[in-house]
Design brief:
alpha+beta, NADH Oxidase, 5-stranded mixed sheet, 15 helices, Nitroreductase, FMN, Nitroreductase-like, flavoprotein
């Protein structure tokens, strides 16, 4: 289990601008070429490599460091078949009352054979509350479990797969997955990954992507080039298992140094780094290819001061009126309070919005869009934030996943439409001199990983 042990120096290592750009561009190119794969070869996938990828996902930030996620590696062919049959049955039921026009197609209609052919399925479960045993009975613990935490971890998982050269397809889980995998009642299935390597002749479908200016709103004349067509599938370099293990271990050692930072210098960041990092974020896959995320970038000091003032009004209400004793206890080791200087000290703020989009606007009608028990736009947006955090870390920048509660004031301040809702704020910049961070630990791999 993760623990808190006071505060420690950040030990931030500044890198020169040319290295910032080199690292960032490598990451952006890696994520931009990623394509979903629906047809897998029989090439074996190393379980040790996949375990390290999960270990990387476990380094993601989470509210009060609760780390509310469980990853389940599924290799058992009988379980994979059970999941495939459940997926096809559920899809058939959803389609009974669904009609499409002649220009649309159901990308997942019919067989889900990939769920059996993939060497592994990886199910991500979100922990919704804690459980403790008292006098032989299990009791609920209402921890501070932020809904965005598990899908942010999924963004780390996605980037780690791509770094390892492993292909995947991400889909919402079948509704019966909790029963199939016999998971406890305090967990709920969030995402299902089919992972492996594409067949030799695999060709990804032609898909468009929204332009950068549609997805990123900022106060800049710098608009980086972005692809409005998804690239063709390109196979990653084939490596030995030893080479893959070394590569993923190196990435783990790099990304685990990323920390949430609350104390920033007022040094300005080259804004081009931030907009370039967002190029990686907007490649994040989504049901129906809807890209239901928007990012607002703020660097104007007066606007940052206004956002801080509005946030501190809500934070004061939270700490004085809304917060539970358990929530307060979970936050105490982080030393947080209603004062939010990071909102004005950091060079830039990035506000991530989820967008509720009508499924009829989908380029490819994916039957997962017909599910009503999941906030697919929230999951996609939080995954995109996870990818973005990786990009900013490669750029040598510090961030914080700040989730004011409630956040409607941000939508009102930016005059965003009613179908958009902010999910978090990322201050971005360089750390203050002598910056300290909570001395937290992460859960052991055995606490977040189950193998079937």
């Amino acid at each position: 289990m993760g623990h808190h042990k006071g505060f420690i120096p950040l030990h931030f290592q500044r890198i020169p601008p040319e290295e910032q750009w080199m690292r960032l561009n490598q990451y952006v190119r890696m994520m931009e070429k990623r394509r979903s794969v629906r047809s897998f070869s029989k090439r074996p996938l190393s379980e040790k490599v996949l375990e390290k990828v999960v270990h990387i996902a476990g380094t993601a930030p989470s509210g009060a460091n609760q780390q509310p996620w469980t990853y389940i590696l599924i290799k058992d062919p009988l379980i994979k078949r059970q999941i495939r049959l459940a997926a096809e049955q559920e899809e058939s039921q959803r389609l009974q009352n669904y009609k499409t026009n002649g220009e649309q197609k159901l990308s997942t209609l019919g067989s889900h054979q990939y769920l059996e052919d993939a060497p592994y399925l990886v199910a991500l479960f979100q922990i919704n509350y804690g459980l403790t045993e008292t006098n032989g009975r299990m009791q609920k613990i209402r921890h501070y479990y932020v809904r965005e935490s598990a899908p942010i971890s999924a963004g780390f998982f996605l980037a780690a797969l791509q770094h390892a050269g492993i292909d995947c397809l991400i889909r919402p889980p079948v509704s019966s997955l909790q029963k199939i995998l016999n998971r406890p009642k305090n967990e709920s299935p969030l995402l299902l990954f089919a992972v492996g390597y594409a067949k030799d002749n695999y060709e990804a479908p032609l898909l468009s992507r929204k332009s950068f200016s549609e997805l990123v709103i900022g106060e800049t004349s710098f608009i980086p080039d972005s692809q409005t067509k998804a690239p063709p599938y390109t196979r990653s370099e084939i490596r030995t298992i030893q080479e893959q293990l070394a590569k993923t271990e190196s990435y783990y050692q790099f990304i685990r140094k990323r920390r949430n930072v609350r104390h920033y210098s007022q040094e300005k960041v080259d804004e081009k780094l931030i907009y370039q990092a967002l190029r990686a974020a907007i490649t994040t896959p989504s049901s129906g290819n809807l890209q239901p995320y928007r990012f607002v970038v703020v660097n104007d000091q007066a606007k940052k001061e206004k956002i801080r003032a509005l946030a501190e009004v809500e934070e004061t209400k939270l700490y004085e009126e809304r917060i539970s004793d358990e929530w307060r206890k979970a936050l105490a080791p982080l030393g947080t309070n209603a004062s939010k200087p990071h909102l004005t000290d950091a060079s830039h703020l990035i506000v991530a919005f989820k967008v509720d989009i009508n499924s009829t606007q989908a380029e490819v009608v994916d039957t997962s869009l017909l599910q009503t028990n999941q906030d697919l736009s929230l999951i996609s947006t939080a995954m995109a934030v996870g990818v973005l955090l990786g990009a900013l870390h490669h750029a040598g920048l510090c961030t914080l996943t700040y989730t004011p509660s409630p956040m409607t004031f941000l939508r009102n301040y930016f005059n965003r439409p009613k179908n958009e809702m902010p999910i978090l704020v990322l201050p971005v910049g360089y750390p203050a001199p002598n910056c300290h961070v909570p001395n937290i630990t992460k859960k052991d791999l055995s606490e977040i990983l189950i193998k079937l």
